[in-house]
Write a sequence for this structure.
């Protein structure tokens, strides 16, 4: 049985402050570090031995991967980083508190911006300092490919070529792969793997720091998927994510 584990980064500073983060490069909180370590211990307990790991260009994911691998004693495995695994770009919403935004625009509108498939927030202007074109880490990415805002659909179109051309094909020779990324880039992968409809994807909320395991047969057909951890705890954590944008 071949396995891919998807892991959303641990709690970040802006998760704690309930802000739209997107491509803003914020660090982990102390709780986020502990979530990453706990994920590593869970994976170690289950006997995972990863052949390779993938993560984004954002430190909250990179550090989560590092803490997780450290607890697994697998710091040595190959790691690939890609901007294509970055979080969905929240455009002009980045930095704003989700609850305050819900008070201003209404919970329904904020839910659409956060979880709908094809609606993007207002775009950043070309001279906005939050525009990724000003960051040296993206110097090798063509400007036309760098988002100023994204819907989930846009984020999926960015992520899936990397998934389909590099990550998933590596499962032919690897037995276990770890992908540490973000709520929406991972939602796009889950949507693809489980054939979730555009309408139903709004109901999928991934908690921080909980390994999500996908098992495949030798022909790379999906056999089953499950979260590691107590099901009731995972359910509560998913509900907490869903409630972040309440007034």
């Amino acid at each position: 049985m071949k396995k891919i584990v998807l892991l959303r980064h641990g709690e970040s500073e802006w998760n704690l402050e309930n802000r739209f983060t997107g491509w803003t490069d914020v660090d982990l909180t102390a709780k986020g570090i502990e979530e990453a370590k706990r994920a590593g211990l869970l994976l170690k307990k289950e006997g995972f031995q990863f052949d390779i790991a993938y993560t984004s260009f954002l430190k909250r994911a990179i550090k989560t991967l590092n803490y997780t691998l450290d607890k697994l004693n697998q710091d040595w495995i190959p790691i690939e980083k890609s901007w294509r695994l970055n979080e969905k770009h929240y455009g002009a919403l980045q930095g704003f508190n989700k609850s305050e935004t819900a008070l201003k625009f209404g919970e329904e509108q904020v839910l659409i911006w956060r979880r709908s498939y094809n609606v993007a927030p207002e775009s950043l202007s070309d001279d906005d300092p939050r525009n990724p074109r000003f960051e040296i880490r993206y110097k090798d990415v063509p400007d036309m490919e760098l988002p100023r805002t994204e819907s989930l659909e846009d984020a999926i179109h960015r992520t899936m070529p990397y998934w389909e051309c590099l990550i998933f094909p590596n499962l032919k020779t690897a037995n276990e792969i770890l992908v540490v990324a973000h709520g929406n880039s991972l939602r796009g992968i889950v949507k693809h793997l489980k054939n979730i409809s555009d309408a139903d994807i709004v109901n999928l909320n991934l908690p921080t720091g909980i390994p999500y395991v996908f098992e495949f047969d030798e022909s790379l057909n999906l056999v089953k998927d499950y979260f590691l951890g107590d099901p009731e705890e995972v359910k509560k954590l998913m509900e907490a994510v869903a409630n972040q944008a309440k007034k």
Observations:
- The chain has eight helices and six strands.
- Residues 30 and 183 are 19 Å apart (CA to CA).
